[in-house]
């Protein structure tokens, strides 16, 4: 049966080209390829729009990550001001480091300063892994994350947990703890992937 491909939109034409059996339907295949050739500029525009839409989605997500980093710095600053009286000098220095790191990371991402992308890589990379071994505890994160956990000490724990609260500790030790877990932040891995993808898109 002869098919009238002139009534097809671009997407339908390309789908038809993927699925048609050229040997079984040589006349339809010829008509299809002729129609595609005649509408090559329309097809080029279709592909350009797809690329543009993909970049737009990536750009929005990238901006969201940058705002997330800035919010972490802002909230950490507010917490530092409110609880300054009860903090040790080490706690204050650590908080200032976290504030500075997140603010600079957020600015670099928001301004798309690709030459300084090592800074957000470093900041977010810190958030990928957390662990607790005996009395040693490390868990650095911003506004929470999606955590995949393996715990060989606690009998009751959630192996997959989503948390959206500011917190974390760069490194703590307590002789009262008996910890045994490894944790991966899937959200942090997503952030790193988006940054790498955005960087590769910008350079292409």
TrEMBL record:
Residue spans crossing the bilayer: 61-82, 88-110, 117-140, 178-195
Keyword field: Membrane, Transmembrane, Transmembrane helix
Top-level taxonomic group: Bacteria
Protein name: Uncharacterized protein
Organism: Pseudoalteromonas luteoviolacea
Lineage start: Bacteria, Pseudomonadati, Pseudomonadota, Gammaproteobacteria, Alteromonadales
């Amino acid at each position: 049966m002869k098919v009238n491909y002139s009534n097809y939109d671009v997407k339908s034409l390309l789908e038809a080209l993927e699925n048609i059996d050229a040997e079984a339907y040589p006349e339809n295949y010829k008509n299809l390829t002729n129609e595609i050739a005649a509408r090559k500029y329309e097809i080029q525009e279709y592909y350009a729009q797809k690329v543009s839409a993909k970049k737009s989605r990536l750009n929005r997500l990238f901006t969201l990550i940058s705002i997330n980093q800035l919010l972490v710095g802002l909230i950490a600053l507010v917490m530092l001001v409110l609880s300054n009286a009860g903090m040790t000098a080490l706690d204050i220095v650590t908080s200032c480091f976290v504030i500075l790191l997140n603010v600079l990371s957020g600015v670099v991402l928001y301004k798309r300063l690709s030459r300084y992308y090592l800074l957000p890589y470093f900041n977010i990379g810190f958030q990928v892994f957390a662990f607790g071994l005996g009395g040693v505890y490390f868990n650095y994160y911003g506004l929470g994350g999606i955590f995949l956990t393996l715990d060989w000490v606690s009998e009751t724990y959630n192996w997959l947990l989503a948390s959206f609260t500011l917190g974390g500790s760069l490194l703590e030790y307590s002789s009262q703890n008996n910890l045994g877990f490894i944790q991966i932040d899937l959200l942090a891995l997503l952030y790193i992937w988006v940054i790498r993808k955005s960087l590769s898109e910008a350079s292409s």
